[in-house]
Amino acid sequence: MRKIICITTYPPRECGIATFAQDLIRAILSKFGESYSIKICAVESDTEKQTCTEDVEYVLDTSDISAYATLTRQLNENSEVKMVLVQHEFGLYAAQEEAFLQMLQQLLKPVILVFHTVLAQPSPALYRSVGRMMATCANLVVMTQNSREILLRDYQADGDKITVIPHGTHLVSFRDKSKLKDFYQLSGRRVLSTFGLLSPGKSIETTLDALPAIVKTNPSVIFLIIGKTHPGVLKVEGEKYRNLLEAKIKELHLEEHVLFINQYLELPVLLEYLQLTDVYLFTSSDPNQAVSGTFVYALSCGCPIIATPIPHALELLSDDSGIIFDFKNSEQLSEAANHLLADEKLRTQMKLVGLQKTAATAWENVAIAYASLFQKTGRGGRGTDLLSASHRHLPYPAHEPPVGNYPVFERKSSGQFHRLYIG
Fold it and tell me: DSSP string covering 45-83, please?
């Protein structure tokens, strides 16, 4: 059995990468637990510490320069560790960036690095930093074709090292929308929703500014804002952003049309809220946000989606499976929402197209892609775009099928129950 150490944030830390890592590792172990043992190196800092779970074997305090050298030595000396999987977001290692880069260079085990963000048009310093990461890692993973193209174009990356593996989605056991609305006391309402850890980058105010025009045409509309404030934001500025939103709601007289669900929802409950949603709104104002876990969760629940043009949305909604609107353009958002709410046939069509796309990106299939990459890395091979060849009509082209005779999973209940923290 091959042992892999995954360097990542991890629950109970509340962030999108922690949730991603937990979902990914559970999926891999569920299918390939006899072949791989995956343990966690939990990424912490002097302001972000939490109780470790039994999955955590190492801890990396990213604010402590000596911690990187210590971890490097521990991993190099542990003969059981055959590979290192690193979840990378620039902010995670910014406090001691040089120490992080030196750790990658000095690790004697093959390293697979997963880029959660790829920034276009880099500064000279960023170009050098990413170049060092790419040079020292055996393989790289990105989640969109756009991210791969940026690495090739702006960083002169070695294309043979890059593997495109999309963000995973949960297989959903669907329930009747009207019964769900009854259960959550939303009967008779047209439901708009968004979810995730709350921060100014979500640009929720864009929806609030659009709501008066939406309510004028659709008086029964209610907008659900699902999720607590991001812990990092809460530590720096408290509930300033939520208070700003509440003030705007009062200013626009929208009290009867907006509902805060200020809690972390268990996965089954979150999926039910998404299934009762008539239109999902993704309003991020960050053009550099390569991927959104919230976005793909909504798509996997059959939500028609209106989204700002981040690369992930542009790829997944490229064939009229959703509507794109400009960043912070409330007028475009209200027009799109009214258009969708008035056209049930179009909403149904978007739902079916979205479900077709996410079927191939179920966590079980993502696990197959990672297992294939582990095999390639273990024998010194390079990655490629890994999705079943039977899904080439999807937005993630497949140039090579997964290694082994593995099925592409049908949609069914995943049976997974765990807390969800999506950034």
Answer: BTTB-----TTEEEEEETT-HHHHHHHHHHHHH-TTEEE
Lowest-confidence segment of 82-86, 202-206, 396-400 by average pLDDT: 396-400
**Per-residue three-class SS string for 165-232:** CCCCECCCCCCCHHHHHHHCCCCCCEEEEEECCECHHHCHHHHHHHHHHHHHHCCCEEEEEECCECHH
Torsion over CA: 386, 13, 37, 409 (sign) = negative
Whether the pLDDT of residue 72 is over 80: the answer is yes
291, containing H or E segment: none
Q: Which residue has the higher pLDDT, 95 or 396?
A: 95
Could you report how far apart the first and last alpha carbons of the chain are, in Å? Answer: 33
- Residue 135, C-beta contacts closer than 8 angstroms, at least 6 positions apart: none
Beta-bridge mates of residue 56:
40
Q: For residue 420, what pLDDT band results from cuts at 50, 70 and 90?
A: very low
Q: What is the mean pLDDT of residues 19-29?
A: 95
Of 281, 268, 115, the closest CA to residue 196 belongs to 281
DSSP state of 91: G
Per-residue pLDDT at 380: 67
